[in-house]
Amino acid sequence: MSPAEASRIGGYVLEDIVVEHSAAVFRLAQSVVRDASLADDVTQETFIKVWKHLDTFRGESSMRSWVLRIAHNQAVSTLRKVKDTATDPSKLPDVENSIATTRVVEGRLAAGELQTALDELDDLTREIVVLREIEGMSYDEIAETLGVPIPTVKTRLLRARRRLSVSLEGWRA
Predict the structure, then answer these.
(1) For residue 160, pLDDT beyond 80
(2) What CA–CA distance (Å, rounded) separates 96 from 107?
(3) Burial of 2 by CB count in 10 Å (0-12 exposed, 13-18 middle, 19+ buried)?
(4) Is the pLDDT of residue 54 over 70?
(5) Residues of 69-80 as b/e, b for ≥16 C-beta within 10 angstroms?
(6) Which of 65, 78, 76 shows the shortest CA–CA distance to 17?
(7) Beta carbons of 48 and 58 less than 8 angstroms apart
């Protein structure tokens, strides 16, 4: 079997799937594992699993939901494995940057406050917020991806938005 044939399974081309969904997989993984390196690992493992199991995709859900479900499961599994040994990203040295110091400080403050506000949410709610607000997924897709009922998605998202609004009050324009 040629590499082109090997990457085309069930009418899908793996390269197209990776290109289309890798950013969403990474963002979801990072919202779960909370570490960019681990999120990279999860992303890579996710697409290995997608490649190995692409022939089992039945089309009952969208390709996006199916891939993100695999990513979510992989991220949770990875988090369980490394929870005790993972290095806190805030303890890692900063990388030198050529961006103006004021802009970096403001960006870090905003990102820090957003991260703190997101940290106050439970894991499931944080994942729902990322999938809805960053990935733009529908309630149905989120429910399917995370394996929770649609009313749970709606309720948690409403509460999270209210909580984030209060937590980030100082950043309104």
Answers:
(1) yes
(2) 15
(3) exposed
(4) yes
(5) bbbbbbbbebbe
(6) 65
(7) no
Give per-residue pLDDT as tens, 116-145. Answer: 777 888 989 999 988 998 889 999 999 999
Query: Which residues, in sequence order, are CB contacts of 19 under 8 Å at separation 6+?
Result: none
| Chain-centre distance for alpha carbon 152 | 19
**The residue to which tokens 């494995």 are assigned:** 81
pTM above 0.85, yes or no: no
CATH number of 1-85: 3.40.50.510, 1.10.1740.10, 3.40.50.300, 1.10.8.420? 1.10.1740.10
Where in the chain are the domains? 1-85, 101-167
